[in-house]
Amino acid sequence: MIAHVRGRVAAVTLSSAVLEVGGVGLELMCTPGTLATLRTGTEATLPTSLVVREDSLTLFGFVDDDEKCVFELVQTASGVGPKLAQAMLAVLSPDGVRTAIATDDVKTLTRVPGIGQKGAQRIILELKDRIGAPTGRVGALPTLPTAPWRDQVTQGLVGLGYNAKDADKAIDAVADQAGDAPDVGVLLRAALRSLSKA
């Protein structure tokens, strides 16, 4: 088990980051919020979760241990794999997930692409006694000062299963929230909310 990775950020893509550790570049799949905290060329330490499949080894990286714990816990619910767990953390903060499950908030969980009404009810039923109380931490994410936020949000939405046309509509709907220093994680969540209303 790889508990965490520390190294120089060699690259940040739209869905992953590459950290150079001892001359080896490790690719970590991350949520937009986690990616927004990373800068190429700087040192970073990310808690990680290794998902082993018959045909692949996938390393997921997180902004903190709390996000990692929620990622691993929600996968214990039937029908929730690593991609869906990551989508939950792309839309909701760890406390948002805890609150939705603790308060039987099916509507909030169905905002996550890939979770329907029955899936949300099953997740609540299976995890309610194990998810724990919200920690009360505010998930404020650093802003990302680069201009191509639209491409990053589009890539994030397409990666979560939306088509490019719907992604463009959602981005247009949230463009006024971008401001001078757009935060990709916040904008992606806003775009997902607008898609869930449509």
TrEMBL record:
Residues 72-91, 107-126 form the Helix-hairpin-helix DNA-binding motif class domain. One of its GO terms (cellular component) is cytoplasm. Keywords: Cytoplasm, DNA damage, DNA recombination, DNA repair, DNA-binding. GO terms for molecular function: ATP binding; four-way junction DNA binding; four-way junction helicase activity. Residues 145-198 are annotated as: Domain III. The keyword Transcription does not apply. The keyword Cytoplasm applies. Pfam families: HHH_5 (PF14520), RuvA_C (PF07499), RuvA_N (PF01330). It comes from the Bacteria. It is found in: Cytoplasm. GO terms for biological process: DNA recombination; DNA repair. Has three domains with a flexible linker between the domains II and III and assumes an 'L' shape. Domain III is highly mobile and contacts RuvB. Belongs to the RuvA family. The RuvA-RuvB-RuvC complex processes Holliday junction (HJ) DNA during genetic recombination and DNA repair, while the RuvA-RuvB complex plays an important role in the rescue of blocked DNA replication forks via replication fork reversal (RFR). RuvA specifically binds to HJ cruciform DNA, conferring on it an open structure. The RuvB hexamer acts as an ATP-dependent pump, pulling dsDNA into and through the RuvAB complex. HJ branch migration allows RuvC to scan DNA until it finds its consensus sequence, where it cleaves and resolves the cruciform DNA. This is Holliday junction branch migration complex subunit RuvA. It comes from Nocardioides immobilis. The lineage of its organism: Bacteria, Bacillati, Actinomycetota, Actinomycetes, Propionibacteriales.
